[in-house]
From TrEMBL:
Signal peptide region: none
Organism classification: Eukaryota, Metazoa, Chordata, Craniata, Vertebrata
Organism whose genome encodes this protein: Conger conger (Conger eel)
Name of the protein: Transferrin receptor protein 2
Alphabetical list of InterPro entries matching this protein: PA_dom_sf, PA_domain, Peptidase_M28, Peptidase_M28B, TFR-like_dimer_dom_sf
Residues covered by the PA domain: 242-307
Topology with respect to the bilayer: Single-pass type II membrane protein
Residue ranges, compositional bias (Acidic residues): 34-45
Length: 799
C-alpha cells in the first residue's frame, strides 16, 4: 500500500486489553543512483514498531516500567531513563506528524504535484489481502507508458486503409464487426452497438458529375473530364447550373466583400474557390449561396497543399471530397435522433445547400482559370497554378458569351449506421463518463481520415483495460467509441448526442476526438474547449516530442518562440470531430493533432490517402507519433478518471466575458445615443466571475473525502459548458446553441461583428436586432452564473 498504512493487529490468546500497533511506510527512492526496486527483490520498507507490553515480564527484568522511578534512581539509571524518554518522545512526535500529513494530503485536492496524489488501487473484498490499497498517480502514469505500445498502430492503419469503406458498404460493415470483436477480446465491462437510420448522399451509379464549356447558343464546346467518379461533395444540390465564371480565392466572407467592392457581379455565376483559408467546404458554399452564385468548384491549390509529383505521383490530379452541409448529423432530422422507431415530420436542416458543389483537381482548375479575363486578382489571391494569369472574371477569353455548365447527379440513400461502444465502469462514480472516439468510415482508403484515429482508439482501450487488470481502479467510467458516417459531418456521433442529450449533460465529463490525429510530425495543435486547456499544459510538459528526442513537447514549442498556448491551443472548428459535442451537446471536448505547417499532408479525403504515403511523409515514424498522441490523451483521461474534483478550469469564461465588456465600453458613446446600456452585461459578467471564484474557494476549503460534497461540486463543474447553450433559440433551427463556440445570431461572434458596424457602416446597424442579441447573451451569461452558484439562496444577483 502506497504512502502510509496503519494496521491494527488482533490479540493473541496471551495478550492483554492493550493491542499492538505497527506503522509502515514505503521507502521512496531519493536518489537517481539508488538500485531499482525490481533488482532489489522485495519492496523496500521502513518500519517503526511501538509495542505496549502485555505484562511487566515482557520487558527487561532489570528495568522498571515506571519512567518517574527511573529518573529518581542512581545516576547511571537516570541517564538510561533520559535516553528512553527522548527516544519515546521522538517516536510519538514522528508518528503524530506522519499521521497528520496523511490526513492533510487526503483532504487537500490542490496541494503539491499531482504525482503524489493517491488513488484506490484494489479492493479484494472479503479476502482482505489488499483492501483499500493505494496507488500514486505517478505510478499510474508509469503504468500507462509501460502498456501503451506503438507496434499495433501501424498495423491497424494498414488494415483500415486497404480499400474504401463508406457507411453501409460491405467493407464498412466488415470493419465494424472486426472492431466490435476486438473490443470483446479486451477485459471490458460492457460492449454494445448503437444503431441509427440516416439519409446520406452518394455519387450516382448511372450518371457521372460533369463540367462543360458552352457558347451563347447553349451548345457544348468542350467537356472537361473531372477525374474519379468517387470525387464529390456530399449534400450538394443536384441538377445542372450554368453561369459566367468568377474566381473567389478561398470563398471566405471577406473575399466576397472584396469582389462586391470591385463591382463584379456575382449573381448567377459559377465560382472557382481554393481549398483552405480557414473555412470548410460547407462555409464556402454557404457564402456563395448568399451571394447569388449558382455553383461552386473547389480545388486544392499547390500554394496551400504542396504536391511533389516525383515522390507522390499526384501531378495535380487529386480532387478533395468533403460534405457541404453547414451543420452536423443527419440533415433530414435536425435536432432529432435518427432512430428507426421515431416518426418525425418531414423537415430538413437550414444548413443544407440549394446550389451545386463539386470538387475538382488543380489541373482542371488551371484549365478554367487560364481562360478568365477581367480585373487582376487582389494581392495575396495569386496561387501557384502553372500558366495562369490571376484574373477575377467573369468573362472567358476564348469568345464572348461563353459560360460554364456543371452537372451534379448525386443521390440520397437511407443507410443503417452502427456506432460501436466499449466501456470500463468507474468504481466510485460509474455514471460519469470520459469519452474517447474516432470515425471509422472513409470515402477513400482513409489512412489519416479513419485509420489513425481508430488505431489510437483501440490502443488506448487495450492499455486502460490492461491497467485495470493490474490494479488501476478508475473513479469514473471510460467510454471508447467507433463512430459511423464521420465523413458526412459527424453523423453517427451527432445522432447519438441527439438521442441521449437529456442525460449526457449530467453525465459526460469530457470528449476526446482522435480523428485525423496525425497530419505531420512537427507541431501539436489542440482544438479545444477552454475548460480543458489547463490539462494540455500539464501533459505537454511530461511527454517527449516524437521527432525531437530529449525535448518535451512543451520545451520544443517554447523553443520556437512565443507563448506555448497561442501556438498549441486553437478554437474548435465546424468540421472537427469534437465540435458538435461542445457547440451542440454542451460537453467539454478536444481534438489533438500533430501537423507540419511547412508541408501539411495533402491527401486527406482523396483516393491517395494510403498508409504507404503517410509513412513516407512521416519518414517511418507513424507508430511513434501515434503512441505520443495516445500518451497525451491517456494522461488527460487519467487525470479526469482519477481526481476527486474534476480538473476543469471553471473560471476560463470569466476572461472571455471581461474581454467582451471592454469591447462594449469602446462603443459606449454610440450605444448611449441609442439608449442602449451595457450595464446588464457587466452585472452578469460580475455574477459569473464571483460564482466561479466562490466555487473554487469552496472546493479548496472542503474535505474531498466526503463523497456527497465532492459529487455536488463535480455536478456543478460538469455542467458549466452546458450552461452556455442558449435556452432561447431552437435546437432544431439553431443546433449549435453555444453562445461562445456555436453558430448563429445568438452568439458572441455575431454580436461583436454587428457591434463593429456602429463605426464601419452605421447604416447597416439594426438596433432592434442588436437589442435582441444583447439580451440573449446577457441572460445566457446570467443563467450560467446562477446555475454555477449551486443553490437559489447562494445566487449573487446584482440586478
Amino acid at each position: 500500500m502506497d504512502a502510509i498504512q496503519v494496521l491494527l493487529k488482533g490479540r493473541s490468546p496471551s495478550s492483554s486489553d492493550q493491542p499492538s500497533f505497527i506503522f509502515r511506510q514505503r521507502a521512496k527512492k531519493i536518489s537517481q543512483n539508488e538500485e531499482p526496486e525490481e533488482e532489489r527483490g522485495e519492496e523496500s520498507q521502513a518500519e517503526v514498531t511501538v509495542v505496549r507490553p502485555d505484562s511487566e515480564d515482557d520487558l527487561n527484568p532489570g528495568l522498571s516500567t515506571d519512567v518517574t522511578a527511573l529518573v529518581l534512581q542512581k545516576p547511571s539509571d537516570r541517564r538510561k531513563a533520559v535516553f528512553f524518554l527522548i527516544l519515546f518522545s521522538l517516536l510519538i512526535f514522528t508518528t503524530a506528524f506522519l499521521l497528520g500529513y496523511v490526513a492533510f494530503r487526503a483532504s487537500c485536492h490542490y496541494c503539491g504535484e499531482v504525482d503524489v496524489e493517491l488513488v484506490p488501487a484494489e479492493d479484494t473484498g472479503d479476502s482482505g489481502a489488499t483492501w483499500g490499497g493505494m496507488m500514486y498517480l505517478g505510478e499510474l502514469k508509469d503504468m500507462l507508458r509501460k502498456y501503451l505500445k506503438e507496434e499495433q498502430i501501424e498495423r491497424t492503419v494498414r488494415r483500415m486503409s486497404r480499400s474504401t469503406h463508406p457507411p453501409g458498404s460491405t467493407e464498412g460493415n466488415t470493419l465494424a464487426s472486426e472492431i466490435l470483436q476486438k473490443f470483446r477480446q479486451m477485459p471490458m465491462d460492457h460492449t454494445w452497438t448503437d444503431s441509427h437510420y440516416a439519409t446520406l448522399q452518394f455519387p450516382s451509379r448511372t450518371q457521372r458529375n460533369s463540367l462543360w464549356i458552352i457558347d451563347a447558343n447553349e451548345e457544348v464546346l468542350e467537356e472537361i473530364p473531372l477525374g474519379s467518379p468517387l470525387d464529390y461533395c456530399a449534400y450538394s444540390g443536384t441538377g445542372t447550373a450554368t453561369g459566367r465564371l468568377v474566381y473567389l480565392n478561398y470563398g471566405r466572407q471577406e473575399d466576397f466583400d472584396r469582389l462586391h467592392a470591385l463591382d463584379i457581379r456575382l449573381g448567377g455565376a459559377v465560382a472557382v474557390v481554393r481549398v483552405g483559408g480557414g473555412v470548410s467546404f460547407a462555409e464556402k458554399v454557404w457564402h456563395a449561396q448568399r451571394a447569388g452564385i449558382v455553383g461552386v468548384l473547389i480545388y486544392p491549390d499547390p500554394a496551400d497543399i504542396p504536391q511533389d509529383p516525383r515522390r507522390m505521383g499526384l501531378h495535380g490530379s487529386a480532387a478533395i471530397s468533403e460534405h457541404v452541409h453547414l451543420g452536423s448529423g443527419d440533415p433530414f432530422t435536425p435536432g432529432f435522433p435518427s432512430f428507426n422507431h421515431t416518426q418525425f415530420p418531414p423537415t430538413q436542416s437550414s444548413g443544407l445547400p440549394l446550389i451545386l458543389a463539386q470538387p475538382i483537381s488543380a489541373y482542371v482548375a488551371s484549365q478554367l482559370l487560364s481562360q478568365l479575363t477581367g480585373p487582376e486578382c487582389p494581392r495575396g489571391w495569386q496561387g501557384r497554378l502553372p500558366y495562369v494569369r490571376c484574373a477575377l472574371g467573369p468573362e472567358l477569353s476564348s469568345g464572348s458569351g461563353r459560360r460554364v455548365r456543371m452537372g451534379v447527379y448525386n443521390t440520397m440513400k437511407p443507410v443503417l449506421l452502427n456506432n460501436i461502444f466499449a466501456s470500463i465502469e468507474g468504481k466510485i462514480e460509474p455514471d460519469q463518463y470520459i469519452i474517447m472516439g474516432a470515425q471509422r468510415d472513409s470515402w477513400g482508403p482513409g489512412a489519416v481520415k479513419a485509420g489513425v484515429g481508430t488505431a489510437i482508439l483501440l490502443e488506448l482501450a487495450r492499455t486502460f483495460s490492461t491497467m485495470v487488470d493490474n490494479g488501476f481502479y478508475p473513479r469514473r467510467s471510460l467510454l471508447f467509441v467507433s463512430w459511423d458516417a464521420g465523413d458526412f459531418g459527424s453523423v453517427g456521433a451527432t445522432e447519438w448526442l441527439e438521442g441521449y442529450l437529456t442525460m449526457l449533460h449530467l453525465k459526460a465529463v469530457a470528449y476526446f476526438s482522435l480523428d485525423m490525429a496525425i497530419l505531420g510530425d512537427d507541431n501539436l495543435h489542440a482544438y479545444t474547449s477552454p475548460l480543458l486547456a489547463d490539462l494540455i499544459e500539464t501533459v505537454i510538459k511530461q511527454v517527449e516530442h516524437p521527432k525531437h528526442s530529449g525535448q518535451t513537447i512543451y520545451a520544443h514549442t517554447e523553443s520556437l518562440g512565443g507563448n506555448w498556448k497561442t501556438q498549441i491551443v486553437k478554437p474548435m472548428f465546424l468540421n472537427s470531430g469534437a465540435y458538435s459535442f461542445t457547440a451542440f451537446g454542451g460537453v467539454p471536448a478536444m481534438e489533438l493533432r500533430f501537423t507540419k505547417e511547412s508541408r501539411p499532408y495533402p491527401f486527406v479525403n482523396t483516393q491517395f490517402d494510403t498508409a504507404d504515403r503517410l509513412q513516407e511523409m512521416l519518414q517511418g515514424r507513424l507508430g511513434a507519433l501515434g503512441r505520443s498522441l495516445g500518451e497525451l490523451v491517456g494522461l488527460m483521461v487519467l487525470r479526469l478518471a482519477h481526481d476527486h474534483i474534476l480538473p476543469l478550469d471553471i473560471t476560463c469564461y470569466s476572461s472571455t466575458a471581461l474581454h467582451f465588456s471592454s469591447q462594449l465600453n469602446k462603443y459606449s458613446s454610440e450605444l448611449k445615443v441609442r439608449g442602449i446600456s451595457p450595464q446588464w452585461v457587466f452585472s452578469a459578467r460580475g455574477d459569473y466571475n464571483r460564482a466561479a471564484e466562490s466555487l473554487r474557494e469552496a472546493i479548496m476549503n472542503s474535505d474531498i473525502r466526503d463523497e456527497r460534497v465532492t459529487r455536488l461540486y463535480n455536478t456543478r463543474i460538469m455542467r458549466v459548458e452546458y450552461y452556455f447553450l442558449s435556452q432561447y433559440v431552437s435546437a432544431v433551427e439553431t443546433p449549435f446553441r453555444h453562445v461562445l463556440h456555436g453558430r448563429g445570431d445568438h452568439t458572441l461572434a455575431a454580436l461583436t461583428e454587428h457591434l463593429a458596424l456602429l463605426r464601419s457602416d452605421p447604416r447597416l446597424f439594426d438596433e432592434a436586432r442588436f437589442r435582441r442579441q444583447l439580451a440573449l447573451l446577457t441572460w445566457t451569461l446570467q443563467g450560467a452564473a446562477n446555475a454555477l452558484s449551486g443553490d437559489v439562496w447562494n445566487i449573487d444577483n446584482s440586478f
